[in-house]
Amino acid sequence: MSLDDLYRRVIMDHYQKPRNRGRIEDGTVTVDLNNPTCGDKISVQMRVEEGKIEEAKFLGEGCSISLASASMMTEAVKGLEVDEALRLVDLFSRMMQGEDVDPDEFPLEDIEALQGVAKFPARIKCATLAWKALEKGAKESVQKS
Amino acid sequence: MSHYAKDFPILNQEVNGNPLVYLDSAATSQKPFQVIEAVESYYKEINSNVHRGVHTLGTKATDGYEGAREKVRRFINAASVKEIVYTRGTTTALNIIASSYARPRLKEGDEIVISPSEHHSNLIPWQQVARATGAQLKYFPLEPDGTLDLKKAEETITERTKLVAIAHVSNVLGTIFPIKELARLVHRHQGVLVVDGAQSVPHMKVDVRDLDCDFLAFSGHKMMGPTGIGVLYGKESLLEEMEPFEFGGEMIDHVDLYESTWKELPWKFEGGTPNIAGAIGLGAAVDYLESVGMDEVDAHDRRLAAYAVEKMKEVEGLTVYGPTTDRTGLVTFNIEGVHPHDVATVLDAEGIAVRAGHHCCQPLMRWLGVSATARASFHLYNSEADIDRLMKGLQKTKEYFGNVLG
């Protein structure tokens, strides 16, 4: 187990310079989640129009893994159809369980750097918090429409 | 590791290629082989239900179970074994007090006073009692270093204060709260004092008659005993007037179709088959701690806490929370710019186990103005060398994040 598998440069970059941090004025769905075991908090906001995620932003408190993961998630879902976003949630969840995901299945880009988290079981919950918020938000937006 | 470490088989292992340094005893302590063997020999030799059978094994199991109760009584200097109720742990003990003592007695206009540094287990039960009875929940003001000013405590406790609940030792700040003085203030207004002893009983001599607390709750697993066993101490007169917490087998005297009567103390609070192996293991843990001597344990744990605080103060960018003096067993800290989870992960890679998070004290985290902290906590098997390893690990953490964050 090497720390460098966990703290990849691209993760640290997202941690230091989080993308899409903030609020969306005309957001259509907001999800606030806590990780009660460690105190991490996240609020994910999206603007979903006609089944498409036009914009996604987050605010949160947490460790490098949880904030970097949130930053990457908001980048990845922008422009996705809601059902595509839910497929990505499923893929990410399998990735966290240590499954080798097929790069052809989805263009992972920066998210691929989070694969190393699977080797640190205590940190998987940090990485998945933002994705749980996405899942909940995506499902809520389907119910609303 | 200290020379006591040889009694703790789990410590003799490598974690991530490094000798294990276990600094998470405030979450749960390790167990000496004397405790492990006591539990093993119970299951191998005398496993049987208690207070039931006429057969020989049943008698032996009952003797072991009740013998351990007497050891616990002596350990905290309770007046009688009637005052020693076995529970699942501190949480259950506090919930029994909240449900069976406080709920039926408190009403609108009464006050419950606790401290903002309480563990959730000594906070939420009182929130629930306040909601159910209309009593008001109030908080002691804490000083900036996490100590309690008795003058201010005296002003907070009024003639309406029916119950004060406070940890003897804070699981985050390490503060030792002045229980004896608080008991005097609470009793002046005929209130009762509930003490959460989860972090004090494992580390220092706790004498309930000297402290004059009305209730004391503590857990076996933090004092080198097994998990799933703990103790509710209550003054006999108070326990006597309380209704049972759980109803069923083992706690009854006479059962009729429409009503029943209860066994005498302490068994009226021990419905169902109890954690017999846990109680016997707890008795062995008491024997172990007494063989070392609680004065020695106390001095050892305070010395390590003072040593850690002193070393940490020398590190730039490291904040230590809680009082600088009169603390025991643990040190809570943060490294500037590095989240405590990340600190704990780097330390784990070095074989060093610390806790990171809110330590079941979310209101206290807000009081400190942080979302989480890291905590190193000690027990008899630790030594200054373990803290030196921790300090090296923290140095490495700073360097590592200095590099990766550029």
Automatic annotation (TrEMBL), chain A:
InterPro entries reported in the protein's UniProt record: NIF_FeS_clus_asmbl_NifU_N (IPR002871)
Pfam family, any one: NifU_N
NIF system FeS cluster assembly NifU N-terminal domain boundaries: 7-126
Domain of life the protein comes from: Bacteria
Gene3D superfamilies per the UniProt record, alphabetical: 3.90.1010.10
CDD domains documented for this protein: IscU_like (cd06664)
Any GO BP annotation: iron-sulfur cluster assembly
MF-aspect GO terms: iron ion binding; iron-sulfur cluster binding
Record family assignment: Belongs to the NifU family.
PANTHER family attached to this UniProt entry: IRON-SULFUR CLUSTER ASSEMBLY ENZYME NIFU HOMOLOG
Protein name: Nitrogen fixation NifU-like protein
Organismal lineage: Bacteria, Bacillati, Bacillota, Bacilli, Bacillales
TrEMBL record, chain B:
Record InterPro entries: Aminotrans_V_dom, Aminotrans_V_PyrdxlP_BS, Cys_dSase_SufS, Cysteine_dSase, PyrdxlP-dep_Trfase, PyrdxlP-dep_Trfase_major, PyrdxlP-dep_Trfase_small
BP terms from Gene Ontology: cysteine metabolic process
GO molecular function terms listed in the Swiss-Prot or TrEMBL record: cysteine desulfurase activity; lyase activity; pyridoxal phosphate binding
Catalytic activity: (sulfur carrier)-H + L-cysteine = (sulfur carrier)-SH + L-alanine
Keyword Repressor: no
Residue ranges occupied by any Aminotransferase class V domain in the UniProt entry: 21-390
Coiled coil: none
Pfam hit, one: Aminotran_5
SUPFAM superfamilies linked to this entry: PLP-dependent transferases
Cofactor(s) recorded in Swiss-Prot or TrEMBL: pyridoxal 5'-phosphate
Protein's UniProt keywords contain Lyase: yes
UniProt EC number: 2.8.1.7
Alphabetically ordered keywords of this record: Lyase, Pyridoxal phosphate, Transferase
Function statement: Catalyzes the removal of elemental sulfur and selenium atoms from L-cysteine, L-cystine, L-selenocysteine, and L-selenocystine to produce L-alanine.
Similarity annotation: Belongs to the class-V pyridoxal-phosphate-dependent aminotransferase family. Csd subfamily.
This protein's name: Cysteine desulfurase
